Amino acid sequence: MSESSASVHDNKMGTMPVNKLLFSMAVPMIISMLVQALYNVVDSIFVAQISEDALTAVSLAFPMQNFMIAVGTGTGVGVNALLSKSLGAKHYHNANKTANVSLFLAVCNWLLFVIIGIFFVDLFFRGQTDIEAIINHGNTYLKICCIASLGVFGQITFERLLQSTGRTLLTMCSQGLGAIVNIILDPILIFGLFGVPAMGVAGAAIATVIGQFCGMTLGLILNIKKNHDIKLDIRQCLPTAFIVKSIYVVAIPSILMVSIGSIMTFMMNKILIAFTSTAAAVFGVYFKLQSFVFMPVFGLNNGMVPIIAFNYGARNKERIVKTMRLSVICACVMMLLGLAVFQFLPEQLLLLFDASDNMLAIGAPALRTISLSFLLAGFSIVSSSVFQALGNGVYSLLTSVVRQLVVLIPCAYLLSRTGVLENVWFSFPIAELAAAGMCVFFLSKILKKLNF
Q1: Angle between helices 393-401 and 427-449 (to 10 degrees)
Q2: Hey, which end of the chain has fewer CB within 10 Å, N or C?
């Protein structure tokens, strides 16, 4: 890497005013995340037109897909933190090696899910329901997504490399292309337009993986042509113990943290389906809808993490604190807007999915109650990413464990024993209150240790 290239990157991440830097990095990520959320919703809207069983199957597939994303993004968080920290500390050889090892790790992650897709998908669905129509739809959909998951792991990896070096606008291009291709192909492959045979839920899965491969391809091209802070070289892809350890010290807590969401969703589906399969469908629809609220916050985090990690490597506490404070304020504003929409327009949101009267009766109270947790969730999400950027991913893991396994699931189960489905939804704000309290404690602890 040339000294001029390093200096330019140094100036941007280390000297640009924090407000301008955060927004310049986060806005493209927020836009790309909104496009991502749009394709998630559109996917389910089209699947809902097949049948409610098909919609329920895709909802029940979510824990496994979430686990897939956990492995990919968790590894990416580790790569992002190490690469940005190495650049901030001017350890350019480590930064370059980290980028290349991430490609090897992406292939390993894909092979793991090929095995899962071939041998464990049917068992996964039968652990949640005994309705054969739902199981058949689910098997078809999820096997395709798992076996062809190289696209999603490659796309996540290349996007994280762009984020780590401050090129979030290019990340937006990669994510946007994948999402747009998926949205275009969904109706064509699901319903059989333009002479293409109708493939139902298989078409939805195929559209998803084609979009992911398109995003991966563009991400590779952008890293080769535009990302001058790193150089991708297949001869440098073999891992070293130091690089892998440094990545997964941060990545494993992140993977476990998101994976806990898969366990939570799996258990919630079992609790809800005991009332009715429509309740499980509503829960799946909620996750699609809330992505419009949460995805922008995740985009904000993706812009924030490399800034904090870089300045942590450069030992600049003032910029770290400014970035944290501004990120929390922005996240809470986003969540407040989402809260308003979920409180005042729940029926209109559900009707996007061809909701029956029964689904509306169950879903409207669910959306209103769960959304009460949004403001606290915004604070907790930003705090968890700060923990990861500063190399304290275990704090994020502990917070997530308490929120989703120690508080949420036991509360949901106990409230389900009342026999009133509406009571179950209150477990979400209760759990978020506990998580926010932990985040306050951990943040104060970390800030006291930043003595440089």
Answers
A1: 160
A2: C
